[in-house]
Amino acid sequence: MADGRERLARPTEIRVGSGVGTLVWPPFEISDSKLHPPIPRAEIVERKVLVRRLRASSAPFLSIVAPPGYGKTTLLSQWAETSDRPVAWVSVDERDNDPSVLLAHVATAIDRIEPLDTGFLRLVTSPRSGGALHAVARLASTFSDLSEPVNLVLDQCEALANQQCFDLLAELSMSLGGDSRVAIASRTVPPLPIALMRSRGQLDEFGFDDLAMDEHEAEDLFDQFALRLTSDELSDLVQRTEGWPVGLYLAALAFKAEGHGHAEVVSFNGDDQFIADYLRSELLGRMSSNEVTFLTRTSVLDQMSGPLCDEVVGSEDSALLLEEMERRNLLIVPLDRHREWYRYHHLLRDMLRRELDRREPDSIGDMHVRAAAWFERNGLPEMALKHAQEAGDADTVARLVLDLAQPVWASGRVDTVMGWMQWLEEKRLVELYPAVAVHGALIFALLGQPGASDRWAAAAGVASTDANIPDGSTMDGYLAYLRANLCRDGIDEMRSDALRALEGLSPASPYRATMTFTEGLFYLLEGDPERADAGFVPAFDATMHAGQFPFAAVILAERCIAAAERHDWTETEELTSQAVSMVQDGGFDDYWTSAVVYAWAAREALHRGKISKGRDFVSRAARLRGLLTYALPAVSVQTLIELARSYVALGDRDGAKTVLRQATDILRVRPSLGKLPYQLEQVRRMVERIPVGNMGASSLTGAELRLLPYLSTHLTFGEIADRLYVTHSTVKTQTTSIYRKLGVSSRSAAIERLTETGLLGS
After folding, report:
1. What average pLDDT score do residues 82-101 get?
2. What percent of the chain has pLDDT over 70?
3. What is the mean pLDDT of residues 705-714?
4. CA distance 122 to 113
5. DSSP-derived 3-state class of residue 259
6. Which one, 41, 263, 295, 505, has least CB within 10 Å?
7. How far, in Å, CA of 321 to CA of 306, rounded?
């Protein structure tokens, strides 16, 4: 693509029955320039001593932390260039503050060296809390299984603010086997378990004092500019800059411009504010007013191309200016070998932004608006959304979120969507954009957060039903769609709302298939499996056509239930196989939608006497129990009932009672769910006939299940409490309960037992 981005596609055709679709990984656009070391300048000093130290290190995790201008990227680039093993490179940016995005970039970088399993690739974009921790454990194992060791570089990690991302990096480095290495570069000390890693000998650290240039390296730098300083001049300059590489580089530029012999006029002292003042006087002071305007206005951009800069600045020669700036060594970095995209050195950009704030403070918002318009016209809506946020353009933000929320969430980037939602909530704008609130309510419901779902549904409910949606749907149709999904007033109202939604949703709306399915679900819950299946079949075909594969698997599972109620176990076996294949081939194991698939698959396997297979499916479904709440009551209760039936078949009284208790809690809030309450009582009577036995992993509560992924990490109980937004005492109490139910007395023993049961994944 002309913007330096490409879809590193690995397509897989999914063909199930009459439905055909194509899965592509990764499920979102990534920037190709992020996966290569920056193109080096000609005037680069080889950091031979430091590179030798990096190559000699046996630590699995290498940390390079220093302020701007110390050559962190340069050092890692030279290490990569001279490495005797393959290097996977990721230049981190703000977008990587979503664990799924960060892991996808890491996986893509490794996949370019040695193709990875498609199922694993899809696992890294699973939209579920804890799913990323499961993925990183698999990633560490994947590193060990590579045909040769790999160096993974993560540059510019100061862009990360998401603690989950650092948790993942820590887990990866501490569980890394073989001779592979992870190296990070950051302006600031990352929030990693540094003391623990040091004590285990897993960390090698490089600070600013290590990266400071000595006189020999400074002399090499000046040789690149064909400059000669006396020994005293060189020693004085290195002392004044404290070996700060960018300070020495700028001094060389100044000497080159003024002619040698003016060293006494340059008083570098290594201070950030001084360097900003120097850049302002020595750089901007030598430029025309048009060039200064170009530099300051384009500082609002993370990346620059000629056409984009023309839009933001209001000029027609930006591409030539960018090339000229690079030629003049003005701290501009090319991002591709075609010289189409660039970025400023961080120091320069910081100074230019301050200068823009001083010169044109009232115009900055308009520049972001123009950037947003350009990105949207050029097919980069997420970049457009970012600039719309910077401009405070809530209308554009809401319109773009409306288009992007569902597909981005489905791609696994939960934190990305949550960031957009949080922006609207912090600005107190949710009620002004009810169509966005509809999506927010459903996404929180799928994440097992019923309280947040209720809050966003209430915001959507204040909307005028006369409003129209950009895709041609009515607000009345959108609200009916939300009500039908949440099923707050029973299945009769659920069906009425589904029919009303079909009247109001645009003929092209991808949500029509969900409403066709919902009408079929009504008939299934009313006890009419034939009529239910008549609705499920067209809903499945439409869902496959739209590429909504996780939901297509739900429809197959519901068709299984309908077939079983007709006593057609031949069709049930075939449909179950299709549903499980869709989930596993697509890497949807951790989606809410997969809970009913695995719960039903367990029952079907046990019906055929496949005990081991049934136990495996029970464990897979149990891992998702924490997502089953009253927010999406009908399928949640269905899933729990099917899971309870499997526990009965396995003779697991406590497991069955635990899931029935969870189903009962949902029914207290949403009682009018057709025949589900009757089915629950049937299973409850079956459970009472099972002999009393010891408690086990199957008796873990939903809250305890949410805690499980964190037990296998380096995190302390206090840190786990922070991640789960609960108190330290709550985590301690829940952990004690987990130990008791598992019959163990330590964290390590619990992890071993949970791994055996499949509750920590494989």
Report:
1. 89
2. 86
3. 80
4. 18
5. coil
6. 41
7. 8
- The count of other CB atoms within 10 Å of the CB of residue 119 is 14
**CATH of region 548-693:** 1.25.40.10
Q: Is residue 681 predicted with pLDDT exceeding 60?
A: yes
Residue 468, Cβ neighbours under 10 Å: how many? 15
Encode pLDDT of 294-325 as tens digits. Answer: 889 999 999 898 999 999 998 888 888 888 77
Rounded to an integer, what distance in angstroms lies between the CA atom of residue 14 and that of residue 673?
A: 33
Q: What is the pTM of this model?
A: 0.77
One CATH from 3.30.460.10, 3.40.50.300, 3.30.300.130, 3.40.228.10 for 30-211: 3.40.50.300
DSSP labels, 133-182:
HHHHHHHHHHHHHSSS--EEEEE-GGG---HHHHHHHHHHHHT--TT-EE
The C-alpha atoms of residue 300 and residue 482 are separated, in whole angstroms, by 38
String of DSSP letters for 266-288: ------HHHHHHHIIIIIGGGS-
Burial (0-12, 13-18, 19+ Cβ within 10 Å), 224: middle
CA distance 124 to 118: 10
Based on C-alpha coordinates, what's the Rg of the chain?
29
pLDDT of residue 431: 87
Say whether pLDDT at 708 is over 90: no
266 CB-near residues (< 8 Å, 6+ apart): 237, 251, 254, 255
Question: What span, in angstroms and rounded, lies between the C-alpha atoms of 375 and 387?
Answer: 9
> 442, exposed or middle or buried, with CB in 10 Å at 0-12, 13-18, 19+?
buried
Phi, psi (5° rounding) for residue 506? -60, 145
Confidence class for position 201, pLDDT limits 50, 70, 90: confident
Q: Is the pLDDT of residue 110 over 50?
A: yes
Q: Give residue-wise pLDDT tens across range 584-611.
A: 887 788 889 999 999 999 999 998 889 8
Fold (topology level) of 702-757: Arc Repressor Mutant, subunit A (1.10.10)
Query: Tokens 């932390």 map to which residue?
Result: 65
State the Cα–Cα distance between residues 758 and 336, nearest whole angstrom. Answer: 45
β 304-305/341-344 pair status: antiparallel
* Segments making up each domain of the chain, as ranges: 30-211, 215-270, 548-693, 702-757
- How far is residue 543's CA from residue 554's CA, in Å, rounded to a whole number? 10
- pLDDT for 118-143, tens place per residue? 666 666 666 554 556 667 777 777 77
- pLDDT at position 41: 65
Tokens of 690: 């099972």
Rounded CA separation 533/517 (Å): 9
What is the rounded distance in angstroms from the CA atom of residue 618 to the CA atom of residue 642?
Answer: 10
CA dihedral 77, 80, 86, 91 (to 10 degrees): -30
Classify strands 87-91 and 151-155 as parallel, antiparallel or unpaired: parallel
Digit-coded pLDDT (tens) for 414-440: 888 888 998 998 999 888 899 899 999
- Report residue 5's pLDDT band, with 50, 70 and 90 as the boundaries: very low
Helix (H) or strand (E) holding 220: helix 215-224
